[in-house]
Design goal:
alpha/beta; seven-stranded parallel β-sheet; four-stranded mixed β-sheet; single chain; 2 domains; Rossmann fold; UDP-galactose 4-epimerase, domain 1
């Protein structure tokens, strides 16, 4: 039987892309998610509710590598903590319930854990100061992962900055800007309503994220936490300008008060890449034009 890899949140944005990579590498991919899907190797298990079903799956399949990608920023405070903290707790309870089982585990963290730390690139050693429920929940998930590591499990946390690319959630700025710009182009122009365009973010293409996940998963995690980032600041206004340029549409851009900064937003979030470069041996270079082109191509193909 071929070696197997398990992905929680395998139906999500990054999960789908990673599952395709795992299969392309010739390994068996076991997917876990809340919603039933007619897909080979997929198991409908709600980790926010219980750990027993996952324990049974792990006992039977014993995957050598687990990617914990389940979770997200939606669902209100209760949903955020259930999908990000409770799922992580149940994952490690399930792993620890299988006698003699020591898989490598990579847990998805988030730049939201850092919060508002100024304009300088943020290193993994920075003291976290999350400013919203999602950041607090992801930090709690990280703490659970590091607790499992201190108990002897080979665990690492990858703190993703802003990921973009084909298949990204439509609610995120790059996808929303792109979708609405394409619609306005088809209509011959119009008005595009946006929020604050001054924030600066560190974008990473989903293809680079999958490369990092795959490569770093091939050995025991060397570091407790690694930023997965490009270190390249991108102003939200510049992102919108590039999308409009590639779509080839002239629009009126209006700012709406209800789309301005929310409680979890920060003005600048850029990561320090040095630890990732040392461990991985390469640097992620984000090409805004290329990533926007890939995103637009995927939306046009729908």
């Amino acid at each position: 039987m071929a070696e197997s890899v398990l992905i929680t949140g395998s139906a999500g944005f990054v999960g789908r892309a990673l599952a395709a990579r795992v299969r392309a590498e010739g390994l068996r991919c076991l997917g876990v998610g809340r919603t039933p899907r007619d897909e080979l190797g997929y198991h409908a298990i709600d980790l926010a509710e219980e750990a027993g079903s996952l324990t049974e799956l792990l006992s039977r399949e014993r995957p050598s590598l687990i990617y914990h990608l389940a979770g997200g920023p939606g669902g209100g405070a209760r949903g955020i903590f259930a999908s990000n903290v409770t799922t992580t707790l149940h994952l490690f309870q399930a792993v620890q319930a299988v006698p003699g089982y020591q898989p490598r585990v990579l847990v998805a963290g988030s730049a939201a854990e850092y919060g508002e730390l100024g304009a300088e690139p943020i290193s993994e050693d920075a003291r976290e100061r999350p400013v919203g429920e999602y950041g607090v929940a992801k930090l709690a998930s990280t703490r659970l992962a590091l607790l499992a590591r201190r108990r002897g499990l080979p665990v690492g946390v990858l703190r993703f900055f802003n990921i973009m690319g084909p298949g990204m959630p439509g609610s995120l700025a790059p996808a929303r800007f792109s979708r609405e710009s394409l619609a306005l182009a088809a209509a011959g122009g119009g008005c595009l309503t946006v929020g604050d365009l001054t924030p600066v973010r560190d974008y990473v293409d989903v293809a680079d994220v999958v490369d990092a996940l795959w490569t770093l998963g091939q050995r025991e995690p060397e570091e407790e936490i690694l930023n997965v980032c490009s270190g390249q600041p991108v102003r939200m206004g510049a992102l919108l300008e590039e999308i409009l340029r590639q779509v080839g549409v002239r629009v009126e851009v209006r700012t709406a008060a209800n789309l301005l900064r929310g409680p979890g937003d920060v003005p600048v979030s850029v990561g320090d890449t040095r630890r990732l470069e040392r461990v991985w041996g390469r640097r992620i270079s984000f090409d805004l034009s290329r990533s926007v082109a890939r995103l637009l191509e995927s939306l046009r193909a729908r």
